[in-house]
Amino acid sequence: MTRPEPITADTILDAAARLIEATGVDAFTMRKLADQLGVAVTSIYWHVGGRDKLFDDLVDRLLAEMANLPLEGDSAADRIAALARAQRRALIERQHLLAIAHERDRTPLLFLPIQQKLAIELAQLGVTGAEAALILRAVEVHVVSSAVMQFTAVRGEKHDEEDPTLWTDDWPDQDLVAALQSPTDYDAVFEYGLESLLARLRS
């Protein structure tokens, strides 16, 4: 007979993060978390404290995760692209935890390590000052807006990508109309925009 995994602060935080990302912050309760773990609520309080302390610990773990996103590639532009992709993935996968961080005024700290890494890579390319700030912000805006569109499309109310009645039959490019009516490939759109942003840095 297999012995159950011992309950620790880490196993509680792992389960809480999964539950929050699956059902949202508003639906989260300590009772639901206890039921998922198969323990008494008092056991959770013993290991991690109350709901606020648990949320603070989750945000601290998220800060550490964002500070250690992979930075890989042979060139500065490749490393910027890898960091942007990793940040987008983290934003999509941690949508509800990000909301908790935002409520606790921790959002600037979440993005600071990423911005600093981007600034270091841009400096290696000789891009500093106001120009570096503009490129850094452009990359961050592209990452964040792409993540928001992605998880809104996945988790939001389902609807058609395009209303066919908005495009007339005599529009000269019917292949374009047909393509716009197919589901959006958000990964492809993100990659196209990212490569467009980095094109000058690669030249």
Write up what this structure looks like.
This protein is an all-alpha fold. The chain has a domain at 77-202. The chain has helices at 9-23, 30-37, 41-48, 51-67, 76-93, 95-103, 107-124, 129-155, 174-180, 186-202. α4 (51-67) crosses α6 and α5 packs parallel to α8. The N and C termini lie far apart (62 Å).
Helices and strands in order:
Layout: H1 9-23, H2 30-37, H3 41-48, H4 51-67, H5 76-93, H6 95-103, H7 107-124, H8 129-155, H9 174-180, H10 186-202
Descriptive keywords:
203 residues, mainly alpha, 10 helices, 71% helix, Tet_transcr_reg_TetR-rel_C_sf, transcription regulation, transcription
Strand content: under 5%
Number of strands: 0
Q: In percent, how helical is the residue content?
A: over 70%
What's the gyration radius in Å? 21 Å
Shape: flat
The biggest beta sheet, please? Answer: none
Keywords: DNA-binding, Repressor, Transcription, Transcription regulation
InterPro entries: Homeodomain-like_sf, HTH-type_TetR-like_transc_reg, HTH_TetR, Repressor_TetR_C, Tet_transcr_reg_TetR, Tet_transcr_reg_TetR-rel_C_sf
Protein name: TetR/AcrR family transcriptional regulator
DNA-binding region: 29-48
